[in-house]
Specification:
Layout lengths: L1 H28 L3 E7 L4 H14 L3 E7 L2 H10 L4 E4 L5 H5 L2 E16 L5 H7 L3 H7 L7 H5 L8 E5 L4 H9 L10 E3 L2 H10 L3 E6 H4 L11 E3 L20 H10 L7 E9 L5 H10 L7 H4 L2 E2 L2 H9 L3
Parallel strand pairs: 1-2, 1-3, 5-6, 5-7
Antiparallel strand pairs: 3-9, 4-7, 4-8, 4-9, 4-10
């Protein structure tokens, strides 16, 4: 009987000893660490969604995500203050020369927003916004809504732009062939700031990224905001093929099939200084460029093509 007990105990001890290396191996393989991201408000909601979903797979990876504009994201990434910068525009040559490596992740657009109670809203929805009118609005050449819509209305126009260096302003300005520094208007910080300013001002006009103009639950513009359609063919009216702003789903479909122009549609980037070396950063970027794409549409963005995703994944090799 004693022999049987001794044999049994020995087996238990051997089993316990053999399991320890496996437990240690599993622990060593588990992804850990912290990833810091900063930058574009345009990419902030999408980045937060990606971090939440990534943590379900790798719970020991911590994230710190902050907004502040594309300029801040690029500066922080190049300075090594963060692991990843969020940039809502194309990378500049001088940034690439300093080591910026951009990964296109999703696509969205910048759209003109006005107060939903604007007295000239009905006329604006019929004629839309032409490039030359936008250029004059953001250069203080048009002082009343009557000048904008071609009526005798003396209702003043209050124009807002971004105070921070950002991809939204750069991309919107590029639509009518100027630069962010050429936009003359009341300067407001951040995407949420512009939306809030327009909501509070019945004669205000600004521009916002899709996720700050549309409620992603209802898919309709946020309460207090209305979207001015772009007169893409410049014929002075919004034709049926230009009328796709009732919901974010309709707008996203128009961006996808090219009815909405680029700019102000554009790719959004995650940027690192050189090829990343931290395992957690590499795995997170791989996730964003693969499984993470499934969350793009529900968050208000457009996923990228398989070819473009493959090209960006190649940068991690």
């Amino acid at each position: 009987m004693k022999k049987i007990v001794y044999v049994f105990l020995a087996g238990v001890l051997l089993s316990a000893c053999s399991s320890k290396p496996k437990e240690a191996e599993a622990s060593a393989d588990e992804l850990t660490g912290e990833i810091q991201l900063s930058g574009a408000f345009a990419l902030y909601p999408m980045a937060v969604k990606w971090t939440e979903e990534f943590k379900k797979i790798h719970p020991n990876v911590r994230f710190d995500v902050s907004g502040g504009g594309a300029g801040k994201g690029m500066t922080d990434a190049l300075a090594g203050v963060v692991d990843i910068g969020m940039v809502s525009r194309e990378l500049h040559a001088e940034e690439v020369a300093k080591g910026a490596l951009g990964f296109a992740t999703v696509k969205d657009a910048v759209i003109p927003t006005i107060n939903a109670e604007n007295p000239d809203l009905e006329s604006l929805l019929k004629i839309g916004l032409k490039k030359d009118v936008a250029k004059k609005l953001w250069n203080e050449e048009l002082k009343t809504w009557g000048e904008v819509v071609g009526t005798s209305s003396k209702t003043p126009v209050h124009v807002f732009t971004r105070s921070d260096a950002c991809g939204a302003a750069e991309t919107f300005a590029a639509w009518f062939d100027v630069k962010q520094e050429n936009l003359v208007a009341a300067a407001i910080f951040g995407d949420p700031g512009i939306a809030d300013a327009v909501r509070k001002d019945k004669v205000g006009i600004g521009y916002n990224n899709i996720s700050y103009a549309y409620d992603q639950n209802s898919k309709k513009p946020f309460e207090g905001l209305a979207i001015i359609p772009l007169d893409v063919n410049e014929n002075g009216q919004i034709d049926p093929e230009e009328d796709f702003y009732q919901t974010s789903d309709e707008l996203i479909a128009a961006i996808n099939d090219g009815r909405f122009p680029s700019p102000p549609a554009r790719d959004l980037y995650l940027v690192t200084k050189g090829r990343p070396t931290k395992p957690e950063v590499i795995e997170f970027l791989k996730y964003v460029l693969s499984d993470g794409q499934q969350f793009a549409e529900e968050t208000g963005y457009i996923g990228l093509s398989a070819d473009k995703l493959a090209q960006n994944l190649q940068k991690l090799q």
